[in-house]
Amino acid sequence: MNMIVGGAQIGGIQKDEGREAVVARMMALMQEAHDRGVEFLVYPEMTLTTFFPRFYVEDRAEFDHWFETEMPNAATQPLFDMAKGFGMGFTFGYCELTPEGLHYNTSILVSPEGEIVLTYRKTHLPGHAEYEAERTHQHLEKRYFLAGDTGFNVVRNQGAIMGMAICNDRRWPETWRSLGLQGVELVTIGYNTPSQNNLSAEEGIERRVYHHELSVCAGAYQNSTYAVAVAKCGMEDGNHMFAGSIIVDPDGFVIARAQGEGDELIVAECDFDKCAFGKSTVFNFDAHRRIEHYDRITEQTGVKIEV
Ligand code: CDV
User: Fold this and answer.
1) What is the CATH number for 139?
2) How many whole angstroms from 223 Cα to the centroid of ligand 1?
3) Distance 192 CA to ligand 1 centre (A)
4) Per the domain annotation, does 23 fall within a domain?
5) Are 91 and 117 in contact (CB under 8 A)?
6) What is the DSSP letter of 133?
7) Is the model more confident about 47 or about 135?
8) pLDDT at position 204, please?
9) 269 pairs with which residues across the strands?
10) 277 C-alpha vs ligand 1 centroid, how far in Å?
11) Ligand 1 atom closest to Cα of residue 122
12) Domain containing 143: what range?
């Protein structure tokens, strides 16, 4: 079963840029995607706003204006309507404030009929909760979000088994295997990755981009799935985030790659029948996994050295 899949990379969103302006940029990419035959389109993590966890505020409620209390809402409804008119499925990330007052870094998957068929809340939140004066850059996701409560689920959408992860999740094999064990055929990943966000002078942008790509290619190969990883990138409020959006096949090869750091569409045709080979040979989980030796993975969080 073939599907033309797109990744809609979004360039920097400045602090003062309103949701309507961002949605207009998303719609321009959706129009281009439609013109190029795309049937399913992937947008980044926190697509609607600047990556505000780089800023510290003492009273976190002051940042509630970055969050959406309903979806779709007035600003995003035109995007939903356009996709439905095109018969296109899509996924994007945003900051969710629930009726119970809980804050999540969320991604939704929308069917071509315009229904939200899967919601995912980011599991692995990087960074810290308090201001850290010794850091060159703050990364306060743990201050503004709760760890997601959904776990990693899949949905059959447009004939393929799809699942979502968000940014830092892509670096954890547990993410991929949780989806792989449900037979996933397309993993979508939106990300905002600052080019500098810690004290290590040795960790240049090339190394960071390599680690991003390595993680996505390895996850796709080891679970025999397609993956679409899409950046929000470029300069945001004077801070740089790397680009590097890619579409990866079930062999772990990059089959589409963004060239720049701005709004840009990448497209690839995915043949989901190709997922069957790895899933029935080297990564035939039923035949080869040894769960009797994996207890430590779920029973222990950090490293314990006992020798
Ligand atoms: N938004 C993210 O989760 N960013 C992290 C950075 C902080 C390392 C990432 O894994 O890309």
Assistant:
1) 3.60.110.10
2) 22
3) 6
4) yes
5) no
6) T
7) 47
8) 85
9) 4
10) 32
11) 3
12) 2-281
Instruction: At 299, list the tokens.
Output: 């029973």
Identify the active-site residue in 167, 217, 270, 275.
Answer: 167
Contacts of 278 (CB under 8 A, 6+ apart): 221, 223, 224, 250, 251
pLDDT of residue 200: 61
Phi first, then psi, for residue 207 (nearest 5°) are -65, -40
Q: What is the Cα gyration radius of the chain?
A: 19
Query: Which of 125, 209, 116 shows the shortest CA–CA distance to 167?
Result: 125
Q: Which residues pair with 162 in a beta bridge?
A: 155, 186
Helical H segments across 145-274, by residue range: 173-180, 205-223
* pLDDT, tens digit (0-9, with 9 covering 90-100), for 240-264: 999 999 999 999 999 999 999 999 9
Gap between the Cα atoms of 146 and 127, Å rounded: 12
Give the phi and the psi of residue 227 in degrees, each rounded to 5: -140, 140
Is 206 part of any domain? Answer: yes
Q: Into how many domains does the chain fold?
A: 1
Per-residue confidence (pLDDT) for residue 199, from 0 to 100: 60
Give, for ligand 1, the residue of 105, 136, 167, 233 to mutate: max count of ligand atoms closer than 8 Å to Cβ. 167
In the numeric block, the tokens 């994996």 are attached to 294
Of ligand 1's atoms, which has the minimum distance to the CA of residue 125? Answer: 3
What does the chain come to in residues?
A: 307
Encoding tokens for residue 174?
């547990």
Closest residue (by CA) to atom 3 of ligand 1?
A: 168
Q: Find where tokens 């680690």 sit.
A: 211
CA distance 148 to 104: 6
**Would you call 122 a catalytic residue per the annotation?**
yes
Q: Is residue 294 part of a domain?
A: no
Taking CB atoms and a 6 Å cutoff, what residues make up the pocket around ligand 1? 45, 126, 139, 167-168, 171, 191-193, 197
Tokens of 189: 């990943």
| Residue at 286 is within a domain | no
Q: Which of 193, 214, 236, 246 to mutate to test the pocket of ligand 1 (most atoms within 8 A of CB)?
A: 193
